[in-house]
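Most newcomers find our protein records easier to grasp once they have seen one. Each record describes a single protein and holds just a pair of labelled lines. A learned vocabulary of local backbone shapes supplies the integers on the structure line. Nothing more is needed to start thinking about how sequence determines fold. The record below serves as our worked example for the rest of this section.
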Amino acid sequence: MTLETMKGADIGHTEDPQGRRILKTAIEELQGLTKELVAGNSATTNIAIAGIKTTDTILSVLHLTAGAASADLTSEASITSDGNIQLSSTDTTGDQLWVEFYSKP
């Protein structure tokens, strides 16, 4: 899912197709920023992320390896089900992932 955009909005007065105020929704999403440090796993295998839902938006996924620079794996991360993400090709077994995501209000 993507975050609300303010582009072209009449701030505070524009409504989305569901009748919600765009500014209110955007602020609520920003308040939902969540950060988790979790154990890695094999590629295409579920990695448990407490509280993440399929309607949420992944901001970043960083691969943390002892003695090495972190690697940005955001482009290969997806939310596969409530409570789980997967990486499409990188095996992070034995390492850690720093995951940041926005919870939809």
Observations:
- Residues 1-31 form one domain.
